[in-house]
Amino acid sequence: MEQGLRKTTNVRMRNYGRIIQDMVQLAVVEQDVEKRQAMVIYIAQCMRQKNALWNREQESGIERLKDDIRVLSAGALTCDFPEFDEMLKRLALRPMPSPDRQMMQKKKKK
Questions:
Q1: Angstrom distance (rounded) from CA 10 to CA 20
Q2: Contact by Cβ (8 Å): 84, 38
Q3: Spatial distance between the Cα atoms of 67 and 81, rounded to a whole number of angstroms
Q4: What is the full DSSP assignment across the chain?
Q5: How would you classify residue 59: left for phi > 0, otherwise alpha for psi between -120 and 50, otherwise beta?
Q6: Over the stretch 82-93, which tens digit does the pLDDT of each residue have?
Q7: Which of 26, 53, 79, 95 could form a disulfide with 66 if both were Cys (CB 3.0 to 4.6 A apart)?
Q8: What is the pLDDT, as a whole number, of residue 24?
C-alpha cells in the first residue's frame, strides 16, 4: 500500500471515527506498557469528546468507554489499571460543554 492513500477498511464505530480506530490499532502494537496505558487514557478522553458531539442527549459512561475500547481493539487493550480509573473520575467531575455553547463563545470573540 502506498503512503498517502487512505485505508479502505470500514469504520467500526462511526460515532468515534477512523482516527480513534487508527489510534486504537497503534496502541495495540505498542510494546511499552506505560506508553500503551498513556495511549489508552488519551484515546478514552478523545472518545468521550467525540461521543459528546455525536450524541448530545446522553453522556457516555465509564463502562461504555471501557467496552468500546475493548471492542475496537478486539480484546487486546484493557482499561483495568489505576491511572485509567483516576482519569475517568476527574472527567466525570467536569461536565462536557455543549457544542452550541462553544459555537456561541466563538462567535462572541470575533
A1: 13
A2: no
A3: 15
A4: --TTPPP-SPPS-TTTHHHHHHHHHHHHH---HHHHHHHHHHHHHHHHHHHHHH-SSSPPPHHHHHHHHHHHTTT-----SHHHHHHHHHHHHSPPPPHHHHHHHHHHH-
A5: beta
A6: 888 787 777 665
A7: 79
A8: 92
List per-block mean pLDDT (blocks of 10 residues) for the chain, which spans 110 residues. 52 78 92 92 87 68 84 89 79 58 56
**Cβ count within 10 A of residue 62:** 16
Hunting for cell 469528546 — which residue is that?
A: 49
Buried b / exposed e along 68-94 (16+ C-beta atoms within 10 A):
bbeebbeeebebeeeebeebbeebeee
